Amino acid sequence: MVTKTKTSTNTQSSTKNKTQSITVAEISQRIEHHLKFTLDEQINVDQKPAYWRATSLALNDIIVEKLQNTKARQQQSEVKSVNYLSLEYLMGRLLSNNLHNLGLYTNTEKALKTMGFELADLCEQGADLALGNGGLGRLAACFLDSLATLDYSAMGYGVHYQHGLFKQSFADGQQIETPDMWREFGSPWEICRPESSQTIPLYGHIEEVAQANGTIKSVWHAGKTLKGVPWDVPIVGYNSDTVNALRLWECRADNAFDWDTFNHGDYLQAHQQQVAAETVSKVLYPNDEHEAGKELRFVQQYFFCACSVQDIIARFENQYGALAEQSHWQTFCEKVAIQLNDTHPTIAILELMRTLIDNHNVDWDNAWAICQKVFAYTNHTLLPEALEKWSVALFQRVLPRHLSILYRINEAFLNDDVNALWPNNDDMRARLSLIEEGHEPKVRMAHLCVVTAHRVNGVAQIHSDLVKQDLFPEFDQLWPTKLTNVTNGITPRRWLKACNPLLANLLDSTINADWAKDLNRLSELKHLADNADFQQQFMAIKQQNKIALTKEIKKLTGITVSPDAIFDVQIKRLHEYKRQHLNLLHIISLYRQLLANPELDMQPRVFIFGAKAAPGYKLAKEIIYATNKVAEKINNDIRIQDKLKVVFLPNYRVSLAEKIIPAADVSEQISTAGKEASGTGNMKLALNGAVTIGTLDGANIEIAEEVGDDNIFIFGLTVDEVKALDAQDYNSYQYYQNNAEIRACLDWLDTDYFTPGNPGELSSIKESFLAGGDPYKVLADFQSYADAQLALDKAYRNPSQWAKMAILNTALMGKFNSDRSIEDYVQNIWHLTVSK
Length: 836
Ligand code: GPW
Known about the structure:
The protein has two domains: 78-93 and 128-487 and 823-830, Rossmann fold (3-Layer(aba) Sandwich); 509-714 and 779-816, Glycogen Phosphorylase B (Rossmann fold, 3-Layer(aba) Sandwich), CATH 3.40.50.2000. Helix content is 49%, strand content 15%. The chain is built from 34 helices and 25 strands. The longest helix has 31 residues, at 47-77. The protein starts with 15 loop residues before the first helix and ends in a 6-residue tail after the last helix. Bound molecules: ligand GPW. Keywords: Allosteric enzyme, Carbohydrate metabolism, Glycosyltransferase, Pyridoxal phosphate, Transferase.
């Protein structure tokens, strides 16, 4: 094996404690330096943004030094590294998290105090990095945090969207979308790396060229090239030596290619090409779990995959020397893992095959063996509308060479693997083929992933079981060890230490260990769950967090809520399968009961929603509108004596989640069983002492296993019961006819009670339950949900019982640390070793 010369000893000393020893005075100095020299700041004008930027820049200097040390150390130790390919990263804000992870929060707080600023207040200045839609993108962000914390060598690859997820506001209850401008004035966290730019070919045609040795070589003559420019965002590990990078690709026109146009004097036309190229990384597609099949999205996916694969090879060659001989690719397999975050980056497989064969003269069998060793794939959904299929015609036009490679993979797969197990079985061939035949033939991206990857994982045990049983049963028969599970997790740094400082302090003083690194240590709280003193401290913190949220609610919506009410929270993307409309139906029912009996004995409750709907998802937008209209009526109805309030917070995002979660009493996890692959909000809320009301779906099942049946409210159909209902033709009308409460609530929606003067505005929701067939079994689960809510209300009114439940939820969330998820990936899929 040819490698670059290695220095004999590791000269990098541990920087872990070095950053923690940076003094208050030094931090002040660094901030002042940036105020003076980078920002040329005239003090007195708009100080907060300037101090936020100067503080971020000062911190970034420290981080970049650590990044360089990490790189040197990782290169020296020649450890294997993982490349996480994801079209989405929901990073949120970075300042407070980076400070916590470096152990510099307190000293920076002190430094800023002497300058007249509250650090917590300054942190609010930063824009969220919202380069993702929901759970899948936030999971990627948590995984990067854990990889760096655990000192693994890892690179996140993503797209440098000019506009992340849209901003949401409400106008008369309707969702309005406006563009996200996260880097309008630049971001202090990103480093442009022009030297690592890539040139990406696409379109054009293939020429079959006869070789001297009698073989035929395919030569791709591209019709167009794009340029990929990388921006690196440093990823700081918590209390560790490691700073990894998230590398985001921005698309530009390839000037070299357009030189001709310039020379022919068509200056403006050349600029047009620049504009066209920039659209490729212009905007994040806002569809969560829904494939729209647009050409620009396909080009975006390919552009991202090609840049990332070329960069992975370039980094490898830079470290281990140019790879002219096939034998060197063995080393590649030993040093490189590539994880596909759902099927969105599937084209990376074809791009690596193409590069090995066309540019590095690797023969087919070896190239295929390499891809199988390097790639692994995570499946995040069973929903048919989210399973990506790209039209063969589009593939042919944009990526003709990649399509020809795909055909050959398919041929080998069908003729060798499928035929071996099911000889001459055309039905099986059609079912498993990478191509779905029909009026418009399509490429099944998930099939390509499963056929290639050495491991395919689901994201919670039940989901992984269903991936085996229902989604890919034949693949499981073909390769019995390929399909596996890695239950999701969340980083306790952002989702407890940074977002809930009061609770974090209590844990610091109660647990004699760095619980943010070893979350299982929280189980020591179990013995305090019955302790009246501890209960009082724990619930006093919850109360303070609720008071803080009360103020935020007032500021954002004008609505006054009482912190003595139950704070009942449903925060997640708006989707029928997540069933925000089940929650709404129950709210309407409670309201009806209160109007009938204003003395109804119940704990006052505030229902808090946060959710964005995909701009093209009509029913989801109608559910938002209906919730806002119902809220308006309830919140202004004095007859119910403030027993019920409904708050829909606008523009739900990571930084808003960080304010809601510490204040939640109840966590709504009410998806139709079998539909939510895992969920991760469920873990964040429980970790912060919220009690779950939920179905036996996704990770709820594992949360229930951890906390025990007494500390969670489970209701509704199980996966098997949902399947049985479907098998016997579920009839939602029956529930409407037989349950007077359901009938009264749904009929109410047809009137103009909630939309005065406009009857029928909310009827589409009722229609989706009845004429629409209620695909997500809302009516079937309603009664069981209402019963569970009643039990929950009763439990809350016993303060020590509730405190015990809340404490046990925090105590027993150790399993859901994303560090554990990462260790599972390392052991079963990536086989990395630490570098520190
Ligand atoms: F459709 N998830 C998501 F599977 O947030 F690709 N966006 C998506 O596009 C998809 C999945 C996809 C979510 C799952 O819905 C959620 O259950 C899971 O916890 C999360 O991914 C992370 O695994």
